[in-house]
Amino acid sequence: MKSFDVLVIGGGPAAITLAKNLGKEMNMALIRPEDHSMIYCAMPYAIEGLLETDKTLKSDKIVTDAGAELIRNTVTAVDFKNKRLRCACGKEFGWERLVIATGAEPILPPIPGHKLTGVTVFKSQKDMERIAGIVESGVQDAVVVGAGAIGVELAQALAAKDINTHLVDMVDAVLPNLADADMTAAAADELETAGVRLHLGRKVAGLVAAGGSENVATRAAGPDSSAVSAVELESGERIPAQLVVFAVGMKPNVELFEGSGLEMVRDGIVVDGAMQTNIEEVYAVGDCVSYYSGITGERTGGKLATNAVPMARVLADTLRDRDRGRDREYGGFYNGSATKAGELFVGGTGLKEAEARERYDAVVSFAEFTTAFPIMPTAKKVKLKLIADRQSGRILGGQVVSGEPVTDKIDQITMAIQFGITARQLLGFSYSSQPWQSFYPAHNLLVKAAEGLVAKMNAGERVSARG
Ligand SMILES: Cc1cc2nc3c(=O)[nH]c(=O)nc-3n(C[C@H](O)[C@H](O)[C@H](O)COP(=O)(O)OP(=O)(O)OC[C@H]3O[C@@H](n4cnc5c(N)ncnc54)[C@H](O)[C@@H]3O)c2cc1C
Q: How confident is the model at residue 328, as a pLDDT?
């Protein structure tokens, strides 16, 4: 039986980061079943036809040139006690240290009709090719369920292919996990302008097979081999659809470890700050892990590549430096992320307003300027929302909506949150300015929003001093 210093189950961003960091120093291997690792984030743009689908496939050389072995297989059994695992082909491999990086899989709710042809989720190369094939077959109507970033990006891609596209979400706003409704309302308008019909605050009851006419709640939706023809909402409304894509969230891919003694909670494998599980010499990183908010210390969702990769970097240092006693701690999820709706870029980080108000005496402030000097031909609107704790002044969250990309601004806010910067400290934030790239030197979005926060905090102090 072949054995490795470090054996990684998985071939996604977390596993690849480990290979890049440790492949040359350690005898290591990655095991993954799929033909290619993927650039998942780019898949909606391949469906839209902005990219060739093969541009979303990563070369295996990323792993092998980094010095790691790539084993193309599915792990079917893990024996933690004897430090060995078995693959679908029957081969067994051993390890000195095992890393679980099995990621997460999209949720397909078990509602009537979920197995009908034309109903899918959106994560793998197969999903992408299935959807692209249905699009190319000339379908007329599509429904995307879930108005998070993935659903919003996919719905726009389908609308751009001249398909009548409907986006359904049970929440009464788009991008509800990314930003507050007062920031995303403009994005909803942009989506409508791009041809996406929104059905917000609506729940899907079931899927109707071609030829089906009765209510899906009272009747089986037809044989699984039938094609889907409509989505039925709980209101009874039917939306015609020959393609239905669920983008309603991810669940950790951990079935393999059930009953094995590996400690898990609903959202994934339990690890400490060094990414160590409860089993000696077994670590876990990426979407398969449940972890804490870096702000509240509570367990929170965070299934993002921008969480998976930093976790893997921490683990690489842990594995490399373990014997030298220099373990690094993973600091937690802040969940900075972004998307694009029509002509608008939207991003958010940290706590949203309602989350902050539940836990803190939160204050909120807005600032609105332009992305370039207002006299420049390229100037577009940009709006920022900043949330802080009144008592400590700590920044808790922020959101940006702009005609230009927002990730740099979101990352600035994340840095403020992550390193405990207060609204008062932000008043002295030293910024840059140039006609094509910012508002006039007289103002900066973060400083302006911080001024608003500090004014509210001071007003609060005066009220409580008098009271
Ligand atoms: C359409 C889409 C768009 C996205 N856009 C963004 C974005 O813009 N920004 C962002 O930060 N994140 C984005 N994400 C999320 C991001 O892709 C994930 O957070 C990231 O891929 C997680 O990496 P991972 O390595 O933990 O897991 P994964 O990438 O899920 O990889 C898991 C790996 O484990 C393998 N595996 C599982 N079980 C077994 C087994 N039994 N045996 C062997 N191998 C196994 C899988 O086959 C896979 O190779 C997007 C996701 C999707 C689907």
A: 79
Cβ(369) – ligand 1 distance below 6 Å = no
Domain total in the chain: 3
| Residue at token pair 């939706």 | 221
For residue 110, tell me if it sits in a domain: no
Least-confidence region, from 1-10, 441-450, 456-465: 456-465
Q: Is 437 in the pocket of ligand 1 (CB under 6 A)?
A: no
> What's the rounded Cα separation, in Å, for the pair 230 and 232?
6
Q: Dump pLDDT digits (tens) for 231-259.
A: 999 999 999 999 999 999 999 999 999 99
Domain membership of residue 365 as a residue range: 345-466
Phi, psi of 75, deg, nearest 5? -80, 130
With 50 as the cut, is the pLDDT of residue 467 above it? no
**Quick check: CB of 145 below 6 Å from ligand 1?**
no
Centroid of ligand 1 to alpha carbon of 287 (angstroms): 7
Cβ(12) – ligand 1 distance below 6 Å: yes
Domain membership flag for residue 356? yes
- The verdict on the CB of residue 287 being under 6 Å from ligand 1 is yes
Q: Which two tokens stand for residue 68?
A: 């790691």
- Which of 295, 324, 353 is where one domain is finished? 324
Identify whether 337 is part of a domain.
no
Instruction: Give CA separation, 157 vs 53, 135, 162, in Å.
Output: 13, 10, 9
Q: Ligand 1 test: best mutation among 102, 285, 335, most atoms within 8 Å of CB?
A: 102
